[in-house]
Amino acid sequence: MASISLRNVVKKYGKGKQELQVIHGVDAEIADREFVVIVGPSGCGKSTLLRMVAGLEEISGGEIDIGGRVVNELEPAERDIAMVFQNYALYPHMSVFDNMAYGLKIKKMPIAEIKQRVDKAAGILELGHLLDRKPRQLSGGQRQRVAMGRAIVRQPQVFLFDEPLSNLDAKLRAQTRLEIQKLHRELGITSLFVTHDQVEAMTLAQRMIVMNAGRMEQFGTPEEVYHRPASTFVASFIGSPP
Ligand code: ADP
Ligand code: MG
């Protein structure tokens, strides 16, 4: 299992006159097994920060440490993370089983172990009766669960979620939130979850990082952030009582 340390993490896009700094020195310690939500308005740098943890975006300064190992120079595949996106592209021609198994097959894992991992994930996500279906034969919520299953079977040390619920309707979003909470209770995998929705953040977070314009405004439990906002930005974004 793994803690995550962000040490003075900086991101700049572009070069020379085009240079744009979008992350301004973020420091945070996420504990092993903790569920942390990164919340803030659109464009504040949430995805950029998450993508740097994932290794999908180069870091411009500072250090990211996963499980005691500095990962700045490591490829995504070497980081022991799994990411769940908003636009979960499933392979349309493959069954649910094959969609979940695909990443393990290309790693040449023995089929018996693949089957065991997929069955376990399908059990947790209640997909056991759908393993032979194709994505088009599933509801939106079921597809989202397959996308999560694909992440689970890899047994990563860290889960990264980038607004995975924002394409779902309100009812499904609430239901999927409960599933994500159950998943975290059962597997205890250190998780970073990005959303622009403060209600979602308050519901899911053990602790939350509130961001504004590339800076971390506050890092605390939902209670702390709500009752003791660190800035007027946090108070108004979260809707704290005056
Ligand atoms: P969020 O996920 O919080 O909405 P992003 O991390 O996507 O924010 O974006 C943060 C800032 O960085 C925004 O101003 C955005 O326009 C800019 N940005 C994001 N990706 C790139 C990129 N590839 N090149 C240049 N600027 C980018
Ligand atoms: Mg984003």
UniProtKB/TrEMBL annotation:
Keyword ATP-binding: yes
Keyword Ribonucleoprotein: no
Annotated ranges, domain ABC transporter: 4-238
Gene Ontology terms, MF aspect: ATP binding
Keywords recorded for this protein, A-Z: ATP-binding, Cell inner membrane, Cell membrane, Membrane, Nucleotide-binding, Sugar transport, Translocase, Transport
Transmembrane segments: none
Protein name (record): Sn-glycerol-3-phosphate import ATP-binding protein UgpC
Organism expressing this protein natively: Ramlibacter terrae
Full-sequence range covered: 1 to 242 of 337
